[in-house]
Design brief:
- The complex is a heterodimer of chains A (318) and B (675).
- In chain A, 78% of the residues lie in helices and 0% in strands.
- Chain A has 318 residues and is mostly helical.
- Chain A folds into 2 domains: 2-73, no CATH class; 94-276, Orthogonal Bundle (MetI-like fold).
- In chain A, helix 5 packs antiparallel against helix 6 (127-141).
- The radius of gyration of chain A is 24 Å and the shape is flat.
- With 675 residues, chain B is an alpha/beta fold.
- Among the domains of chain B are: 4-93 and 175-238, P-loop containing nucleotide triphosphate hydrolases (Rossmann fold, 3-Layer(aba) Sandwich); 345-568, Rossmann fold, CATH 3.40.50; 593-674, no CATH class.
- In chain B, the strands form 4 sheets. In chain B, strands 6-7-8-3-9-10-12-11 form an 8-stranded mixed sheet, with helices on both faces.
- In chain B, strand 4 (65-73) and strand 5 (76-77) form a beta hairpin.
- The two termini of chain B are 43 Å apart.
- Classes of the chains: A mainly alpha (318), B alpha/beta (675).
- Chains A and B meet through helix 9, helix 10 and helix 15 of A and helix 2 and helix 4 of B.
Chain lengths: 318, 675
């Protein structure tokens, strides 16, 4: 078991190393660099040379990668070009904001998704299922920029209940941020919840049709006891991995929603730094997002391993 | 008269088709189960036997519903009962033992909990008493060390042990009626015989009534007092089990009994033409009309009623049962096998060993397999052209493993596989040239999985023809149709998809695909075990016919010794990946000489209440072959002592050319068995 965990962590680190290499090589291959972007038309002769020297771009690529990597491990990603401030300081509040958004969506979305999924599966083909399934399929198919725009139109513009876009500074306190995140959370949670509810539904239906559930019924196990003891533990096990991917997606992948609501999260930072050709920030973001994916997936796998007796004993035997 | 505990009255169960028609799965079933008796329900897949058994617990599967009739237990109709009331009957009064215990035990709950759950629900015992009771129950079903078994998860037990746990779970509520849905179908022959013996013991010991559902007349014959034969949702014959097995007075039962291969008879059983009608396609008249040898004009338009014959205590659904009554001794008329054996070696395995052990990194780099005690070892077999050789043994005996290695799907650890005396077949599939691949073809157990569901029959058969012979256009089409005719399928099958075919038809397509490559050797991996008995006989006959036409060599793997007896010229008995005995099938079956062969043959169930299985050895599951000595030492009842534990037994050859690998001298081996 311990050996397995160590192996998985090592594999994760190798993944991160490869990701960092790819982003570094990618930014090297692109025509132009930080100095040409920064100096624009003055990017020639003395000035360019001076800029190269100042940013340390005059040494060979592998040396730059090495020094970048050593600093990055210590949490120092260098300086952002556009704002001329340490990337650490740029990232900090953005990560916090993304975490706030993601955790709000998770705490609201996942319980609802589980409940909807289980309800639709248990009342399969009956009224609750038909009604909820129609809604979830609908929610799943509307792209988030449409639902987000509609939410702004109805709730912010017509009803004037909540602010439509986030215009507070990046580093406000949580309470000040709160009214601003309600609409983005709804927009994200809708899609996420719908997807997960469908997943949970099919997983529960599959387990309900299994022979061991039929056996439990024929053994005389009361319905709800059967659901909680025999069905749910087995049906929700595969959901762990889906939840993990959703969390990772929430932290870095909800670009569209963040842009529509002007929300200062990580997703928007990615777009901004790419369009500003702020390559050091892009590199830092790539590494951070990759580590989020790797670590959350690792956690999910370990949880599955702990909860599934079949996998657990297999590992011990080996 | 004994008390009736379950009364099924005019029961019809069905589903609504897309067009809204009611389609019946069970049609007007009436029968009674008496206290203390064991009733066998037999029928092929799709006959409605499992649906009937489940209805007896008031359970109707999702998608099906009761159209009429009732299942009466303690004078209340289970099918109309509320779930809350059913929960008090299920497990306590009526309990079920499922077909596949491996799937029927909840994977995340420990064995002990699952039995305890039944006890909590159906008894007033306190916690400590329950714990004791769990041990008692596990003891009763003869599981070793109950305390440790109770703490295990289902997947940590073998198939036979899981089935025993399911029996213990059913007994926890001390039910009056036990329903058994194919309880031994997935098990090895020896395990099956042991489980049946246990069930018989429980029936006598507790006086519980049992309903035993199976497609296997052999198993039914061993346990039941009374037999119900079902065909396409109806009862066609019901009566005392001895009469039904010895003198079946319904043409379907008659044909079914004739199509079962028997150990005592060499050669192929007779097949029954056609297949059971699908639900919803039934017309007027008798549902067995198409396949019946005794049918008349009136059978076509009038459906016979179930008629009770007082003198035989039997109910039968046939107009012509009287003519069958006079002549219904099941004399198996058997097509004698023509042996097309030639004295030419076609495949030679020498010193073949195969390992499943995980390679160490160093070995992977050096591309070698180092395993001192491989799964399969010392296989030496010499196969002649036109021969049918069968590999038999329980699961884990390595029979399928050897087949895979011959096909090149699994690398051997050592040894040589030689084709046609001079051509070495590489153990690595990638190194075999197209001709090496063509000469050996495989037919798999389950045609549902071996045929691509998105290809038509034409595309499936065309593939080898295109690949090996580069056929195109008209010529390709002609070849496909020829092949289809060879396997007795018409031209119109070309455009069909596998899902539109019945099980037997699918397997015929798989056979046609194998023959399309014009192979010298065909490997048959349990080719009939997914098929119904009547279809099985037809496929066996077809394989035999094709072999005579093409002079093909078959290597046949099966766990069913009667099937092997019917089709093979020579048998190789395997235990734990080591050969025990090789010899002509008539000798192996008549003088079972190796102690393991004796165990295997003793456990075979014949559809005859007078032939009881002999249980010679314990059905222990061994995980790994022993490091040294005889592979069978762990279970052998005739073990001699240290010699068996330390030395690999020598080959001994009998007068009839039968090779036996045992330390016991031949004379003693034979002497004991004749007695």
């Amino acid at each position: 078991m311990l050996f397995l965990i160590i192996k998985r962590i090592l594999l994760g680190l190798i993944t991160l190393f490869i990701v960092s290499l790819i982003t570094f090589v990618g930014t090297e291959i692109l025509p132009g660099d930080a100095c040409t972007t920064y100096l624009e038309r003055q990017a020639f002769g003395e000035q360019l040379e001076a800029c190269y020297r100042r940013l340390g771009l005059n040494v060979p690529a592998y040396e730059r990668y090495m020094s970048w990597a050593v600093n990055a491990i210590q949490g120092d990603f260098g300086y952002s070009l556009s704002g001329e401030m340490p990337i650490k300081e740029v990232l900090g509040p953005r990560i916090k904001n993304s975490l706030v958004l993601a955790s709000a969506a998770i705490f609201i979305g996942i319980p609802i998704a589980l409940i909807l999924g289980i309800v639709t599966a248990l009342w399969r083909d009956k009224l609750p299922d038909v009604a909820i399934s129609t809604v979830t399929i609908f929610a799943m198919t509307i792209p988030e920029f449409i639902s987000a725009t509609l939410l702004i139109l109805i709730i912010a513009i017509w009803l004037e209940w909540l602010p439509g876009i986030v215009i507070v500074p990046t580093d406000v306190s949580f309470l000040e941020l709160l009214p601003n995140i309600i609409l983005p959370v709804i927009a994200i949670a809708m899609i996420m919840t719908a997807h997960m509810a469908r997943m949970v539904r099919s997983s529960v239906i599959q387990v309900m049709a299994s022979e061991y559930v039929q056996m439990a019924i024929l053994k005389g196990v009361p319905y709800w006891k059967m659901v909680f003891k025999h069905v749910l533990p087995n049906a929700l096990l595969p959901a762990i991995n889906v939840v993990a991917l959703t969390i990772a997606w929430l932290l870095g992948g909800v670009v569209v929603t963040e842009v529509v609501f002007n929300y200062p999260g990580l997703g928007r930072l990615v777009i901004e730094s790419i369009s500003n050709r702020d390559l050091p920030t892009v590199q830092a973001l790539a590494i951070i997002l990759a580590s989020i994916y790797v670590s959350i997936n690792l956690l999910a796998d370990l949880m599955t391993l702990m909860l599934n007796p079949r996998l657990k004993t297999l590992q011990i035997r080996k | 008269m004994t008390e009736i505990i379950q009364k099924v009255k005019n029961l019809s169960i069905g589903f609504k088709s897309k067009k809204g028609e009611e389609i019946l799965i069970l049609r007007n079933i009436s029968t009674n189960i008496k206290k203390g008796e064991t009733v066998g329900i037999v029928g092929e897949s799709g006959s409605g036997k499992s649906t009937l058994a489940l209805a007896m617990m008031g359970y109707v599967k999702h998608g099906l519903f009761t159209i009429g009739g009732e299942c009466e237990f303690n004078s209340s109709n289970l099918l109309k009962m509320k779930n809350r009331d059913l929960e008090k009957i299920r497990g306590r009064k009526i309990a079920m033992i499922p077909q596949n215990a491996g799937q029927a035990l909840t994977p995340n709950l420990k064995i002990g909990y699952q039995i305890d759950e039944a006890l909590q629900l159906h008894s007033d015992l306190k916690e400590e008493e329950r714990e004791q009771k769990i041990s008692e129950l596990l003891n009763k079903v003869r599981l070793p060390s109950p305390e440790t078994i109770a703490l295990r998860y289902p997947h940590e037990l073998s198939g036979g042990q899981q089935q025993r746990v399911a029996v213990a779970m059913a007994l926890a509520g001390t039910p009056d009626l036990l329903l058994l849905d194919e309880p031994t179908t997935g098990l090895d022959v020896t395990t099956q015989a042991h489980v049946l013996e246990l069930l018989n013991f429980i029936a006598k010991d507790t006086g519980t009534s049992m309903v035993y559902v199976s497609h296997d007349l052999g198993a039914i014959a061993q346990v039941s007092d009374r037999i119900i034969v079902m065909y396409s949702g109806e009862i066609v014959l019901e009566g005392p089990s001895r009469d039904i097995l010895k003198k079946p007075i319904h043409p379907y039962t008659y044909g079914l009994l004739k199509s079962i291969p028997k150990l005592s008879l060499a050669g192929l059983p007779q097949s029954m033409p056609g297949s059971q009608p699908q639900p919803g396609t039934m017309h007027r008249g008798c549902s067995f009309f198409d396949r019946c040898d005794f049918s008349e004009e009136k059978c076509k338009n009038n459906s016979p009623q179930l008629e009770y014959l007082e003198e035989l205590n039997t109910s039968v659904r046939c107009f012509n049962h009287k003519s069958l009554m006079n002549d219904s001794q099941v004399n198996q008329t058997v097509n004698k096998i023509k042996t097309s054996l030639q004295d030419k070696e076609i495949l030679n395995l020498s010193e073949v060993s195969i390992s499943y052990a995980k390679q160490k990194l160093l070995d992977q780099v050096l591309n070698r397999i180092s395993d001192e005690n491989p799964t399969v070892k010392d296989i030496n077999i010499n196969i002649k052209k036109g021969e049918t050789i069968a590999l038999v043994g329980e699961s884990g005996s390595g029979k399928s493993t050897i087949l895979k290695s011959i096909a090149g799907l699994l690398r051997t650890k050592g040894g040589i596989i030689k084709f046609d005396r001079n051509r070495n077949l590489s153990s690595d599939l990638k190194e075999r040239d197209p001709n090496d691949l063509r000469i050996i073809q495989l037919i798999f157990q389950n045609p549902d999985e071996s045929l691509n569901p998105n290809h038509t029959v034409e595309e499936i058969i065309a593939q080898p023809l295109k690949l090996y012979f580069g056929l195109k256009g008209e010529q390709l089409k002609k070849n496909i149709i020829d092949l289809l005719q060879k396997v007795r399928l018409g031209e119109f099958y070309t455009s069909r998809y596998p899902r539109q075919l019945s099980g037997g038809e699918k397997q015929r397509v798989a056979v046609a695909r194998a023959f399309a490559a014009k192979p010298d050797i065909i490997l048959c991996d349990e080719v009939t075990s997914a098929l119904d008995v009547s279809v099985q006989a037809a496929v066996l006959n077809l394989l035999q016919q094709l072999k005579e036409d093409f002079g093909t060599t078959y290597i046949f793997v099966s766990h069913d010794l009667a099937v092997v007896r019917a089709i093979s010229d020579r048998v190789a008995v395997l235990y734990q990946g080591r050969l025990c005995e090789v010899g002509p099938s008539k000798d192996v079956y008549q003088f079972p000489s190796h102690p393991y062969t004796e165990v295997l043959l003793g456990a075979v169930l014949e559809p005859d209440p007078d032939i009881k299985p002999k249980l010679v050895a314990e059905d222990i599951v061994e995980e790994k072959p022993p490091q040294k000595g005889c592979s069978f030492q762990g279970r052998c009842s005739r073990i001699l002592g240290d010699i068996c534990k330390n030395e690999v037994p020598p080959w001994q050859i009998t007068n009839s050319g039968n090779s036996i690998r045992c330390h016991i001298p031949l004379k003693e081996l034979q002497k004991d068995q004749i007695n």
